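Changelog note: in this version the structure field was regenerated for every chain. One regenerated record is shown below for reference.
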Amino acid sequence: MANTVLRFLRRTSPGAGWPWLFPRLAFVLFAGAVFGLFWLTERSDREEQRATLISDVLWLEQDLRFHLSRNEERLGQIHAREAGNSVLFDNLARVLLANGTGLRQILWVDAAGRLRRALPAPTEDYQVGEAVGIIPSAETFSLARSLGKPAYGPAYPIVGGDWQFEVHVPVFENGVLTGMSVGAYSVGAILDSAVPWWLAERYRIQIRDNTATLLGSRSKVSAEVREGEYQIPFEPPGRGISIHATPYRTPPSPAGRMLSVAVAVLAILVVVSFWTLRRHVQGRLAAEQALRTEHQFRKAMEDSVDTGLRARDLEGRITYVNPAFCRLVGWSSEELVGRAPPMPYWAEDEIEQIRTIHDSILSGLGPESGFEIRLRHRDGHVFWALIHESPLIDENGRQTGWMGSVIDISERKRMEELARQHQERVQASARLVAMGEMASSIAHEINQPLAAIASYNTGCLNLLKAGTVDVEGLVGALGKSVEQAQRAGRIIRRIYGFVRRSEPRSEPVAVMEFVDEAISMTRADAARQGVRLEVDATADLPVLNGDQVLLAQALFNLLRNAVEATRDQGGAEAVVAIGVRRTADGVEVAVADRGGGIPAETGPKLFEPFYTTKSEGMGMGLNITRSIIESHRGRLWFEANPGGGSIFRFCIPEGS
């Protein structure tokens, strides 16, 4: 037990040290005190019950002795003259039998040992005697006569399972034995009459002889006895007879039980409280250690990242910045923490715009996807920054401020501008290549209005030279010449607008305008190669927002590829179908050819830059087309034509 206690005391928490020994020792002492209290209480109760048992048994033995002694006196008061009178003897005997001391028969024996009187009268089935019906006992008679005082005989069984013993009281007159008064006691009757009810409720009372034979018992049938029997010699009658008292197992009193239960519950509560406190403290120590570890880890992580971190309270004052943020703006954390707007790193020419964004963030209306803004370094140079703001929530779920992540995107902005310029140059180059391929068609298209102008002018000159001026005819010819000149101008402006390098524009565009423009640029080349262009457009087409020249170029690239894929078909199959319709996603334009189709291994690489299946191509047409469509928030895809060939489709949402 001592080793177990020592092991319990030494089992301290990691890092807790010796202070944990004192509550453990206090707990052990408390537990010992509780168990000691229970043990002392139990022992005191047992000792008290033992003392009560001895006292009660002594009282019973003395009470029985008192009754037997008094009966001896009364038996000794019966004289020979009274015994000779049957009526007088019967009256005296009835008085003794009625006193409730266990007497069941009174007998009178003369000096010669002959039975003279008996009440009740002896019968064979009433008693068997100690030697087959010899009542009273001759041995006890002789003993009492020789002693000259009352003598008790041994117990013997009688009919009915009871036991009986006799007391012989010699009666002398003038010193001469005149007879013997004999009282027969029933052991069962003695217990029934002499043992009070309260004593029978506490103990099982038994009378046994020197051979441990049970002579009589008084007990509760349903009661359970416990250990702790006490016995005392039964003198008189003696002869090895003893009284045995065994206490019953009595339930503890409600008050004692409640007190024991209360002490036990309090002990359990102390144990549980101590264990809970220990677990709580251990958890707290572990949490503090984990928090320190996590803090060091996060601090090291925040110090090592290139993303600037900045925390602000609900009023906009800076509460935390990491080293990366300090490097971005050139100000130290000591200079920034606690500062309120305007901040020293705000660009001077954009202070109002930054303040507006700052106020919208503090009011919870800031852009969720982040925002781009220009900031100023301490040395004066301005850089682009991408900032994401998110609310700071404490352990109670309340917002205490805002946490912002700041990334320097100046290099990305520069690369985007370079990529945009490069894309524009590539698109311009592609348009020039396309113009080179359209040169003959363009020359033919411009040649027609020029030839018409020349013809009209020649006719007018001839009329003027002949002197026969028809004013109306002259005006009509000159008007037609002006129309042809305007037509040539429109062709030249369209070609110039298509070729020139310009910024993409976003303006209202009628769908059929860029469709017709792309078809007009392709029709001459298609006719030269024997390919027909068929247009199927619905009437409910909306107006889009975009760049008409770029959209026309995208469709022109698809039409040119379709014409080249279809030119070898010939006859009725040499058709390129253009479909324009309105869908739930916007406006869909489809270009279907009857060519040889696109092989499966070519499909995944079809839109990659500089990938081409033509010997003279650059491989940029479809890539540029997809870029133009995606810049208008649309998408471009292709699929196999059920009638042979391929179908290229692009869809542009309304309001793009």
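Spot check on this record: Residues 21-76 form the longest helix (56 residues). Residues 148 and 170 are 6 Å apart (CA to CA).
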